[in-house]
Amino acid sequence: MKERGSFFVVPGIVWVLLFTIFPLVYSFRVSLSRVAYGRITGFAGLANYARMFQDYRFWGVLGFTLIFVIFSVAITVSLGLLLALVFNRKMRGLRFFRALMTTPLFTAPVALGYLGVMMFYEENGPINILLQTLGFSKVPWLSDIFWARTAVIMVDVWQWTPFAFIILLAGLQSLPDEVYEAAVLDTSSGWDIFRYITFPMISPVLGTVIMLRLVDAFKVFDIPFALTNGGPGTATRTLTFYVYTQGLRNFDLGYASAMAYFLMFMSLAVGIFFFRRYRSLYE
Amino acid sequence: MKRSSILLVVALAVVLVLTWSFLALAQEETSELELQTAEAAFQAADKGNPDPAWQGQKFTIGVYSAGPRGAISGPLYFWRPFFEKLTGATYDIVEIPFGELREKIFTDLMTGTGYYDVIIGPSWFYGDYVSNGWIVPIDKYFDDPRMPKWDRDSILLPIRELLQWKGTWYGFNNDHDGQVLYYRRDILTDPKWQELFKQEKGYDLPVPPRTWEEVYDVCDFFNGKDWNGDGEKDYGITMHLKVGGQGFFHFMALSAPYVVSPAPGDDPTKVTRYHNVYWFDPETMEPLVDTPGFVEALKMLLKLSKTGPSAMWGWSLGEAWDAFLRGKAVLTFSWGDVGSLSQLPESSNIKGKLGVAPIPGSEKYYDLETQQWVNQRNFVANTVGASWHGVISKFSKKQDLAAYFLSWQATPEINHWNVVWGWTGIDPGTLYDLLKPTGYADIEDYVQTGYDAEDARQFVTAYEEMWYKYPLRQAYLRIPGTPEYWEVWDIHLSEAVVGQVSPEEALRRTKEDWNAITDRLGRENQKKIYQEAIGYVPEK
């Protein structure tokens, strides 16, 4: 019986070997190789890794990637939490609003990127028209470094805030009413209730949301690709975008693999550090 | 009937109605005149002797994606029923977005998959195509009795050379790209503006502007004035400067007269180490991109970019063209598409007001040999752009059928039909597109399809003048890795345009990156291919 049970694990093992372990090992080999037109032409040692440290473009894209991760995750989670707190009450039409709020989540990021091109269009785009109607001047959304970065982050926030909202709302709704009933007897301050009761109690959910968003933000590609194509200059080029360009456009697969490994270890390091800190704070 | 069944029926009906509507719309776009003239071209074109064995066969074409009525891919859809009638064979059209052409096509060729029998791609792939042996020479088809005859000598020389490698033909005639200057003829010839221009700039308004310095003055003068009378400020120039928006082609065309210098002696077009070179020193493969000619040109591009909407730093082709076609910019420089689009009422309100001139020159050029500026006007023709045309994959199993299709599309009648119908994106570049007496075409060919006569005359004559009468030509880069060289250039130019780095730094970075690419791909091999591509014979 036990042997028969093991048999059912085989497809899972094959799947992991084929689609996770093999690509991981193979891409590591490629990262240590010289590659021309998709074919390994020789051993490069650590040259591809060393190249990263001399490549100013690599540091540029890494810088924007970190800016993107920090701002996108912080704003997404804060807004998601705020909305979850607002919607965490009995109100008419709650289900409708909740469904409406989550629609950006179901859109392909690349489609949102192209939608962003229209929304942020500088000459007669709806956002600039709205700003001008309100008495502001036109914003150079896609042609200025600062505003292009802002636009990319805004589109990402637009897409992922509903995700944070839904998870955090579920977390809030699972909190026991008795605790709040008792707390109301001790204080009338909503802020105190949030600070000392709600926030600590939803922290595990919050930690999960932040972790998932961090992993996802490090991988961002579609939105800058569609919205700004990494420009102006290289202002909105992310690390994954650079890996894609070097690997699949220029077929410089050795260097692309080395950078992909760097990204993987960086994401892992950030994840492990975050979880350890979080666990030490709330366990 | 259950509720779910009713819903299913309703949904099906909606889908059918929508499909029918789209098909009806698509059919409406093809006019009766188009069909009549296409039928006439079909009848007149040589058809060779299609092999009966081709009946029922199918091949696949990979092409730049612009849809069934869009540039380059559109004619493939249009002519497919004619081809089926002619041969009993057919083809699938696989549209590939511009940004993905390289990875899709090169991956197919690198892996030997052979998914695409025919690639209708850009000319900058030739270095990779030929050095890797990915495409087949086509000379053997010229005397094949099955193949329709096309007139290779009619293709204007700068374009003809793009279809060959060391004298061997690889590409079939189709599209012909080069950038020319488009301006508002009605505005520049208006006495009111001419007088104001003279007052402000101190000399007569040049119609058309012949050098970039004059172009700048014109754009600077008109920028910020309401010259079209719509109550809003209008612009001097419009360009597409977004990264990946093909802005580097603007710089390529603009910089050529500052960089390319004539050879001393009897033949100014002779390629020497220092003359008629643009990309690299052919002896060392050291990039020339940071030499003073390029720096001066980039400063001019930046100056020009201040005479248009700042939004154009984030614009691709469509947006930049649209600003000119809607009458918001007095001037632009671009490919033949602007000329044909300006005649379409749905995309333009400047029909009958179009002026076209060959690409401007410069007031001076930098001589690489003497390392001195020469204060003399310099005019250099360009073939910047893709000149989209068909090649046959080495891995195709249907090479003969593919060659038949491409030969048939290259015949004067079919090719000229594509040129005169602007929506096809096929731009003029053969003698049968040029007007008599230089060429064989009549202005009526163009007027019949909706062109304004004077617009058409200016449009075609500008190409004639540039490709026939300009003293010098800018070499096209056709070495392995060309797309990568251009991509990093595009990025660094954008960095300079938005002020991320100085012009000198942008070009220095480009040089550094180009050297890295050259070293990675093998400097000696790159040098050999570059010398072949530009026709440089090393001096002993």
From TrEMBL, chain A:
CDD domains reported for this sequence: TM_PBP2 (cd06261)
Where is it localised? Answer: Cell membrane
Is the Repressor keyword given for this protein?
no
Q: Keywords in UniProt for this one?
A: Cell membrane, Membrane, Transmembrane, Transmembrane helix, Transport
Q: How does it sit in the membrane?
A: Multi-pass membrane protein
Show the Gene3D superfamilies listed in the entry.
MetI-like
Record keyword Iron present: no
Q: Any stretches that span the bilayer, and where are they?
A: 7-28, 58-87, 99-121, 146-172, 193-215, 253-275
Which InterPro entries would you find in this protein's record? MetI-like, MetI-like_sf
Q: What is this protein called?
A: Sugar ABC transporter permease
Which species expresses this protein natively? Answer: Thermatribacter velox
From TrEMBL, chain B:
The record's principal subcellular location, in a coarse class, is periplasm
Per UniProt, which keywords does this protein have?
Signal
- List the Pfam families hit by this protein, alphabetically: SBP_bac_1 (PF01547)
Q: Signal peptide span per the entry?
A: 1-26
InterPro entries to which the protein is assigned, alphabetical: Bact_solute-bd_prot1 (IPR050490), SBP (IPR006059)
**Where found?**
Periplasm
Asked if the record carries the keyword Signal, the reply is yes
Give the SUPFAM superfamilies listed for this entry: Periplasmic binding protein-like II
Concerning its family, UniProt says: Belongs to the bacterial solute-binding protein 1 family.
Q: What is the official name of this protein in its record? A: Extracellular solute-binding protein
Instruction: Give the originating organism.
Output: Thermatribacter velox
Q: What are the leading ranks of the lineage?
A: Bacteria, Pseudomonadati, Atribacterota, Atribacteria, Atribacterales
